């Protein structure tokens, strides 16, 4: 097998792992990856504005709002207007949302991050530059994406 073929096989394996994890998340919790990321961020940050959430998750405010709309319809998140500044809206998890998070699988990137942090600095840099080169070779380096390993719709479960 040519080296480029080995690289393409490895890329397909990564895509497949992400796809399988996304399907498991959808089946087990009825959530998409971005929904889970947003809910976990609310859990970590507490009562939070959409702007803070979008910064924390690297999502646009419009994307975060769309996801919050769906989570609120499902009673996992509640939005309330600030008592001190009526222009601000805060999101927080409901009891249903907390219960769902307790049973939801961990995001796939959590395992990756744990293993990546165990690498030596030079290994991290080598891996980063290689993946950035791959991204450029696939004309994907300028795509606006959040740091999450999920595929499919941001707001809907399949």
UniProtKB/TrEMBL annotation:
Its BP terms in the Gene Ontology are: response to stress
- Keyword tags: DNA-binding
Any one Gene Ontology MF annotation carried by this entry is: DNA binding
Q: Which InterPro entries match?
A: HTH_MarR-typ (IPR000835), MarR/SlyA-like (IPR039422), WH-like_DNA-bd_sf (IPR036388), WH_DNA-bd_sf (IPR036390)
In terms of Pfam families, this protein maps to: MarR (PF01047)
The HTH marR-type domain sits at: 4-136
Which PANTHER family is this protein grouped with? MARR FAMILY REGULATORY PROTEIN, TRANSCRIPTIONAL REGULATOR, MARR FAMILY
Can you say what this protein is called?
A: DNA-binding transcriptional regulator, MarR family
């Amino acid at each position: 097998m040519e080296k480029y073929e080995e690289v393409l096989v490895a890329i397909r394996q990564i895509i497949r792992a992400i796809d399988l994890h996304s399907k498991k998340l959808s089946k087990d919790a009825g959530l998409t990856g971005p929904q889970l990321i947003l809910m976990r961020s609310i859990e970590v940050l507490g009562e939070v504005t959409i702007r803070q959430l979008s910064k924390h998750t690297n999502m646009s405010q419009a994307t975060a709002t769309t996801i919050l709309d769906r989570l609120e319809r499902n009673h996992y998140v509640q939005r309330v207007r600030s008592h001190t500044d009526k222009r601000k809206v805060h999101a927080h998890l409901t009891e249903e949302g907390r219960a769902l998070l307790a049973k939801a699988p961990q995001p796939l990137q959590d395992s990756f991050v744990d293993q990546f942090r165990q690498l030596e600095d030079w290994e991290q840099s080598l891996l980063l530059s290689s993946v950035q080169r791959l991204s450029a070779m696939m004309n994907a380096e300028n795509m606006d994406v959040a740091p999450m390993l999920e595929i499919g719709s941001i707001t809907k479960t399949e």
